Amino acid sequence: MADPPGCCSTCATCLLCPYSCQWITAKKEKRKGLRTTKYDCSWFLFLFCVFLFTLVWLYFAIIILNDFHNFNEFIFRQRKLWLDWSLVLLIATAVLISYSSVLLVLALCLQLCGQPLKLHWVHKVLLVLTVLVVAAAFTGLGIKWAEEWKSARISLQATGPFLHIGTVGGMTLLAWPLASFIYRTRSTGLRVFLLLVFWAVMIALYLAPLGITSPCIMEENQLPPKPALVGHRGAPMLAPENTLMSLHKAVECDVQVFETDVMVSADGVPFLMHDEELTRTTNVQAVFPERAALNSTAFNWTDLQQLDAGSWFLERRPFPTVQSLSPGDRKEAAEQRIPSLEQVLEAAKQSNISIMFDLRPENHSDYQNFVNVTLGVILQSGIPLQQVLWLPDGFREDVKQQAPGVQHVYGRKRLENEEPGLHINLPYQDMSSEEIRQYRQDNISVNLYVVNQPWLFSVLWCSGVSSVTTNACQVLKEMKHPIWLLPSSTYFMIWIVVDCVSFLIIIWAFVLMKKCSHRRRPAESETDVLLTKINSLMQE
């Protein structure tokens, strides 16, 4: 394996102590036991793989932040415990990636200094644990949240060009310690193997843009109009969800549609509520502790009016934006009550905003009556029917007959030979950029949910989606342009320049390391001869 040359004792100590937990000694006969072996090289390779593994998980962790509020709600429904688990995820991921990164940097510095790579057994155990933790995280993601794999695929359309540049840069930097190792190792076979693997990876990276596609690689004049915003339960980052305050905040964000969920009370009053139980968004456990676990539809309207639907928002802080609310907004939030559908329709009519809703629960034995009661409230409200977007699939034909002016929104893709003018509402993971473009050409309105992150909004904007449902209307409102937009000619030029610069730096690294190795060998030979003579004289 590599024969390490001499190195500054202080530098060697600073590097070896955290990596190997050993103090370097200047005596050559003691250093012989610290030479890098094949076993040590295998652990370095394992360290490098762990670093890449945690780096990929960091990427996934950042991507799934768009949907993490759903995970928080899921945990609350299961455990009745509210916590912003995204903070736990990011902190744990940061610790793992920092640990593996520091070890990798130490190993590369040791290699450049010609020092042995003796990884301490504690680090070995921790690296194995890191792999197990990250593998468990990926497994859980695949079992409980499989749609996030589709989110990752979409994210590559936003990050692909930049990931390519970053990966080429990282591999280019890796060429320096690799060249140092190749010129120090005595194994010709290992040299050839490492060179073949390295250049195979680099050639693949240089040609990677041939397979990178993004809807945002287009000319400026080809950019579709900005998608309209649909407020997911209003503006839930600025006000308690499904309240009148949330609707008003959504209007301030230039939201065109207020998306909500409707249930019907035991005495036949439609009201706004998403969860089947009232525990997450009201103080039902304090007011009706013995009935807290009942379905929301089991309460009459008089009981529902006694509940506080706003204080939970200030106490649990479902979004970080709650901390920045003004005193006036905090006071208003604390005074929120569960609104009836009639109140919301009146507010929507005055604000000239459309309303789109689901009717829950779909499996209720009295669901047809729910549809009739809800439809009756809509017709009596006087709101223009074109401002009402009907999502429920149950008894849709009855609704079309009783209120022909209502716009129907379907939670499915279009059927074969279906007429144009259709309104579709789907998760953003369920439609590709090509499908969005085709639907747009066929005059089919597509709304995708839930879109919170600017990178995702940018990809869908470039794809030509009609509208998006969002929790972050205050963020997306401020976007006047996608995060990035590159003409294909500009991206081609960046690709060629990056690849050429990388290639030249790699060649320079190998040439420079070869010269350094030639200079070092005569000096090492002279030192060995001198030490041999000294030993002979001492023996005499």
From TrEMBL:
The chain crosses the membrane at residues 41-65, 85-113, 125-143, 163-183, 190-212, 492-512. Keywords: Glycoprotein, Hydrolase, Membrane, Transmembrane, Transmembrane helix. It is found in: Membrane. GO terms for biological process: lipid metabolic process. Pfam families: GDPD. It is a multi-pass membrane protein. PROSITE patterns: GP_PDE (PS51704). SUPFAM superfamilies: PLC-like phosphodiesterases (SSF51695). It comes from the Eukaryota. GO terms for molecular function: glycerophosphodiester phosphodiesterase activity. Residues 227-480 form the GP-PDE domain. InterPro entries: GP_PDE_dom, PLC-like_Pdiesterase_TIM-brl. One of its GO terms (cellular component) is plasma membrane. Belongs to the glycerophosphoryl diester phosphodiesterase family. This is GDPD2 inositolphosphodiesterase. It comes from Hippolais icterina (icterine warbler). The gene is Gdpd2.
